[in-house]
Automatic annotation (TrEMBL):
It comes from Silicimonas algicola. It comes from the Bacteria. Residues 8-149 form the General stress protein FMN-binding split barrel domain. This is General stress protein 26. SUPFAM superfamilies: FMN-binding split barrel.
Length: 160
C-alpha cells in the first residue's frame, strides 16, 4: 500500500535535504544545495558565474530538473521547474550562510556570486518509511500476506 503524498510533507522532508543534482536545459546534472521558499514554490541556488548552469541561463529562463535522493530524509524526488538568473541582493542576504561563504573568497559580495531561481511546476515524489520501516513492512507482509506499506508517492503540481 502506498499513501498519497501532500505538499506539506514534501516541503518538510526537503528541509532535511542538504543537496541534490540540478540540471538546466537538459544538460548534465551537477550537485547543488537548495534553499526552499515554500510560500513561492521556489528553490534557490547559490553558484558561480562561470558555471555551465549560469552560462545556459544567460540567454533567458530554461527548463530545470532537480533530483533528490536523500535516505536520511526518506525523500526521493524529481522536481521540475523554470530556472532563471536573479540579482536579488535582499534574497542573497537572506540565503547567505557559512556553506556558501566557503566557496567564495570575497564572501557574499564576491563578483562571481550568482543566484539561480527555480520556479517549481511539478514534482514526482516518493516519501518512504526509512530503512527500519521498510524492514518492518517486509516482515509484516510475510506474516500477513498483505502488501507492504512503502510510504507516500505522488505527483505535486505547483501554481505558476
Amino acid at each position: 500500500m502506498t499513501h498519497t503524498l501532500t505538499a506539506d510533507d514534501f516541503w518538510k522532508r526537503l528541509d532535511d535535504v542538504q543537496s541534490g543534482m540540478l540540471s538546466v536545459d537538459g544538460a548534465r546534472p551537477v550537485p547543488m544545495s537548495q534553499y526552499a521558499d515554500r510560500d513561492l514554490n521556489v528553490l534557490w541556488f547559490i553558484t558561480a558565474k562561470g558555471t555551465d548552469i549560469v552560462e545556459s541561463l544567460a540567454s533567458g529562463p530554461k527548463e530545470a530538473r532537480y533530483l533528490v535522493a536523500e535516505g536520511a530524509a526518506n525523500l526521493y524526488a524529481t522536481v521540475d521547474g523554470k530556472a532563471s538568473l536573479s540579482n536579488d541582493k535582499a534574497k542573497l542576504d537572506e540565503l547567505w550562510n557559512v556553506v556558501a561563504d566557503s566557496w567564495f573568497e570575497g564572501g557574499e559580495r564576491d563578483p562571481d556570486v550568482q543566484l539561480v531561481r527555480v520556479d517549481l511546476t511539478e514534482a514526482e515524489v516518493w516519501a518512504t518509511t526509512g530503512r527500519l520501516g521498510f524492514l518492518y513492512e517486509l516482515a509484516k507482509s510475510q506474516v500477513s500476506e498483505a502488501k507492504p506499506d512503502m510510504g507516500a508517492h505522488g505527483t505535486l503540481r505547483f501554481a505558476a
